[in-house]
Write a structure and sequence with these properties.
The protein has about 425 residues and is an alpha+beta fold. The chain has 10 helices and 12 strands. The protein has helices at about 1-20, 25-60, 80-85, 190-200, 235-240, 265-275, 290-330, 335-340, 345-385, 395-425, and strands at about 70, 90-105, 125, 135, 150-155, 170, 185-190, 205-210, 220-225, 230-235, 255-260, 285-290.
């Protein structure tokens, strides 16, 4: 073991001396290998950032990985029981979805059915009694004029849902669930809804299905929830102040409950209470959000495709190192023969050449990783918080590891043949000197 350790140390020392003695050739080898290693680093970094962006976008819509999601079908018994049990809990949040129109009464919204504002007429349709939808206005409503009104989805929440769905703040503030409920419902808009209120000046009057009186809402903030359609978020208790009964309020489309994995006791209690009130298990649907595993196959396939293309670029760099290595060995034939004459083993000669190429690969990997870090730092200032990208774009360590491995593999492949040729230099060649 000591002899092998000594040979390894000698190979490194002599290899470093060879690199210092042939700086220009080392630089040329690094240049030929740089693009290949950089391609591997970029592909790995891009794959990790793409996975992070995809997960961040999915988390906005569905929830973080590990979150337990329960759907409760619409039933007059479900809503009051759920709201009663979930009150004051921090490990579970219930949400009820409905629709609202804010603006002038008895007019058609500028975006019927909550269509995006950049798609004029995209939401102009109606559904008949058989459930078949048709383009245009509902003939039963007559010729209703389009007025200064905006239609949007409305999500009423019992608590802060951001612990499960990490919305990105844009402006203003989020809902305060610790204070007393207000008679004027506070709304937080998503970016698409905020776009509509920026374009159109509408009266502060909100119409919600089932409410006998139209409340006056207050917009307190804007968030990015990844939704392309206008959406608003409100405290459930503030919205229910304006409804005659819970069973007639938002929840007719069902309730969604998001729970932490540790909230097993609450889940069992909720199931027991609902079962005691005649709600069967068929009306409950529970699943654990596991988005990372679901998209892992797609991301892995994409990563291998791009790594294959990066590998082709890397092979070009390997060919460059191989050519330089063979030329160097040809010039150092007398040196290697002399070392053989004084008793240097063939394995040490091969180790010297391999050490030079491996060190060259490591230096190239360090340069490629450093370049990647600088580029991501510059691009990060433009991409952070935009679209699906997270607010903090850090260079993924997996890309650094991939770069180091690529540099070592390239050094090994490019130096293997020159190392074998150096080990086979006959001792008689020393006589040429």
């Amino acid at each position: 073991m000591m002899r092998m350790s000594g040979r390894f140390r000698s190979s490194l020392v002599i290899g470093l001396q060879g690199i210092r003695a042939r700086k220009m050739r080392t630089l040329l080898s690094m240049v030929s290998l740089f693009l290949g290693v950089l391609a591997v680093v970029v592909v790995q970094a891009g794959a990790e950032l793409a996975a992070a962006a995809a997960l961040a976008d999915i988390e906005l819509h569905e929830g973080k990985d590990g979150t337990v999601r329960m759907y409760l079908s619409p039933d007059p018994k479900v809503t009051p029981i759920t709201l009663d049990l979930i009150k004051g809990r921090s490990d579970a949040v219930a949400s009820l979805d409905t629709r609202a129109i804010i603006g002038e009464p008895r007019v058609k919204a500028v975006n019927p059915h909550g269509a995006p504002f950049d798609q004029p007429g995209g939401g102009d349709y109606y559904c008949d009694s058989r459930g078949e939808c048709h383009p245009g206005s509902d003939p039963a409503q007559g010729d209703v004029p389009t007025g200064q009104a905006i239609e949007l989805g409305l999500t009423a929440m019992t608590g802060d849902i951001r612990q499960f769905r990490p919305f990105r703040a844009v402006s203003g503030e989020w809902l305060d669930f610790a204070s007393a409920p207000s008679l004027s419902p506070r709304l937080v808009l998503n970016k698409e809804a905020a776009k509509g209120f920026t374009r159109y000046r509408v009266p502060a009057e909100m119409r919600v299905e089932g409410a006998p009186v139209n409340p006056t809402p207050r917009i307190i903030g804007v968030i990015d929830d990844g939704n392309a359609q206008p959406q608003a978020y409100v405290r459930a208790d503030e919205l229910l102040n304006w409804l005659p009964a819970v069973s007639a309020g938002p929840g007719q489309g069902g309730i969604q409950v998001l729970m932490s994995p540790a909230a097993t006791q609450f889940q069992q209690t909720l199931r027991a209470r609902l079962a005691a009130n005649g709600v069967s298990d068929d009306q409950l649907h529970t699943e654990v959000i596991n988005s990372k595993e679901r998209i892992a196959g797609q991301l892995t396939l994409m990563r291998w495709v791009f790594l294959g293309m990066a590998g082709l670029v890397l092979l070009i760099g390997v060919a460059g190192i191989l050519n330089v290595g063979l030329a160097t060995v040809g010039e150092r034939v007398e040196e290697f023969a002399l070392r053989r004459a004084v008793g240097t083993p063939r394995s040490l000669l091969a180790g010297i050449v391999l050490a030079e190429t491996l060190l060259t690969g490591l230096l190239t990997a360090a340069a490629a990783i450093g370049f990647g870090v600088l580029v991501l730092k510059v691009l990060g200032s433009f991409l952070e918080g935009r679209g699906p990208f997270p607010h903090h774009l850090d260079f993924p360590w997996q890309a650094g590891v991939a770069g180091v491995i690529a540099g070592l593999v390239a050094g090994l492949l490019g130096g293997l043949i020159p190392a074998l040729r150096a080990a086979r230099v006959p001792i008689a060649t020393v006589m040429r000197a």
